[in-house]
Amino acid sequence: MENWNAANNELSAAVLASGRLDELLAELGCEVKGYPGGDRFRGRCPVHKGADTNFVVGTDGEKFPVYWACHSHRCHKAAKLKGNLLGLVRGALTGDPDRPATMAKAVAFVEDFLAREGDRPTAVRQPAERPTRPTLSLTRAEVRRRLLLPSPYFLSRGFSPAVLDRYDIGESRRYGWAVAPVYDDRGHACVGAVYRSTKPPCGTCSKCHHPADSCARGEPRWWFPQGFPKGDYLFNYAAAVRSVSPFVLLVEGVTDVLRAAEAGVVAVAGFGTDLSVPQALKLAVLNKPVVVAFDNDPAGTRAAASIVTLLRREGVSATVRHPPSGYKDVGEIPAAEVTRWLAA
Questions:
Q1: Do the Cβ atoms of 51 and 40 come closer than 8 Å?
Q2: Do residues 292 and 280 lie in contact, with contact meaning Cβ atoms separated by under 8 Å?
Q3: What angle do helix axes 254-262 and 335-343 make, rounded to 10 degrees?
Q4: 114 SS3 class
Q5: What percent of the chain has pLDDT over 70?
Q6: What is the pLDDT of residues 294-314, one digit of tens each?
Q7: Which of 70, 179, 220, 239 shows its CA 20 to 30 Å from the CA of 97?
Q8: What residues are paired with 166 via a beta bridge?
Q9: InterPro entries from the entry (predicted)?
């Protein structure tokens, strides 16, 4: 859709007709105050993630059906943004008014939002269905109270007790699973988890269960809670935001992040070989080079090349660094060798 003004007006009208503008603002990270469903909304700016309530959205404008203004940082005046709905979405998706998401991604986001209730405008394409948003929100103290820390399973695999404790890697007292909590982008609230079976793998069913149990009782090696939108998060992202490291290492899984941490390297995991657009935008916001270090197998090699292309489209300096020969992934490399490998 090349006529972006027409796209903005059409999507704005559809959002207003649905009566769900307040919901859209909430999905963009704005805690709206005032009178949802009315002509004006006030809250925290979802573009620069401000703490004050100097962000205003109106629906009674003459130029734009939906308009917005950030009166503290003046995000709406940024050179690459407009004070209309798509301008707001572009800025909110990256959290950086100077490096907003592309117009196409903003259009897709609004289409997606509308499609979940069947209110999408007929002139735009049907987007893919988004997963259900997580309802979990636990403090770190609550997480630690619920788990046996550090995880005996990961201790038995040779991971550092200090690193396991730092990342709250424990085991469910009720089910015996190893648990890697997933925190929000600020590292304040636990929004989900990655579970790891502590049972031995079965050579017949490829799942994990005790030898005395039937394959019908097998469980996956790794899994997520039902409905968890893994494409919206990066494991250990909050640490990458705070880090002064000149680069960030992008890996596939939790154990890769743990091993990198033992070597003093900041890494984030995308939960597999796929990288979603929201995850790519989070990496772009870091404004530092990304080194992609996926598994030493054909799938990892192909995915790494594809993700480098995606990141470069978002303006990220990205390169591929395969784990040394003889190691399947970063998680298998001894910590001392991780340092030498990255320095080579």
A1: no
A2: no
A3: 80
A4: helix
A5: 89
A6: 999 999 999 999 999 989 988
A7: 239
A8: none
A9: DnaG_primase, TOPRIM_dom
Opening angle at CA 325, ends 320 and 326, nearest 5? 135
Of 317, 308, 330, the C-alpha closest to 261 is 330
Q: And the tokens for 291?
A: 């080194």
Rounded to whole angstroms, the maximal C-alpha distance in the chain is 72
Q: Give the contacts of 17 (CB within 8 A, at least 6 positions apart).
A: 119
If you ran DSSP here, which 8-state letter would residue 324 be given? P
* Rounded (5°) CA angle 274-277-282: 100
Q: Fill in the amino acid letter for 293.
A: A
Whether pLDDT at 162 is above 80: yes
Task: Compute the distance between CA of residue 196 and CA of residue 181 in angstroms, rounded to an integer.
Answer: 11
Which pair of structure tokens corresponds to residue 128?
């893919």
Record the tokens describing residue 233, joined without a space: 């998060």
CA-wise closest residue to 233 among 196, 167, 187: 187
